[in-house]
Amino acid sequence: MTFLRCYFLCVLVLSACLPRAASSPTPTMKATSAPILPLTATPGLILRGRVHLPDGSGIAGVAVCRNYASYPGGVIATTGADGSFQPGPAFIPGDEMVGVWPVAAGYTFEPPFVRWRHYYGLEDRELDFVASPEAAGTLAPPGPCS
User: Fold this and answer.
1) Which residue range is the domain that position 115 belongs to?
2) Is residue 8 part of a domain?
3) What pLDDT digit, counting tens, does each position of 27-54 carry?
């Protein structure tokens, strides 16, 4: 007999001698209350936030700007009557530096802008800007917002 025939004969004999495992029960699905993101979730950024005075009252009509890395920014939202904003989701296919700031005549903001590194994936971020009447010699926003 050749080696391969001998090998397969031994495997066949040994497999017949070993006990068989009991059949496992049919798996069942359990409901979960945790939200599950789909595996195909689009990577990017979901922003929301509020622009308000120190007393908490919102400011309507404030332009909210966003830029990536060192590129100039653009208006992504305008605040509503309560000072809140929520632009649509932004597709970001990888890692990116993101900057967001409000712009309105007659006001300065604290913080003047927010900058962070967005890593690949879906990010949901909330921002809060406090507005004060503008004073002479204030800090300009980090870039143009057209």
Assistant:
1) 45-133
2) no
3) 555 555 555 555 556 888 899 999 999 9
Which long-range contacts does 80-88 make (Cβ < 8 Å, 24+ apart)? 82/50, 82/58, 83/50, 83/51, 83/52, 83/57, 83/58, 83/59, 84/48, 84/49, 84/50, 84/58, 85/47, 85/48, 85/49, 85/50, 85/51, 86/47, 86/48, 86/49, 87/47
In this structure, the chain runs to a length of: 146
Q: Which residue is it, tokens 């979730």?
A: 41
In a domain, 13, yes or no: no
Q: Specify the number of domains making up the chain.
A: 1
Q: Is the pLDDT of residue 61 over 50?
A: yes
Sheet containing 74-78: order of strands:
74-78, 63-68, 96-103, 114-118
- Residue 52 makes CB contacts below 8 A (sequence gap 6+) with 58, 59, 83, 128, 129, 130, 131
Tell me whether residue 60 is in a domain.
yes
DSSP-derived letter for residue 118 is E
Residue 138 in domain: no
pTM: 0.66
Q: What is the CATH number of the domain that holds 79?
A: 2.60.40.1120
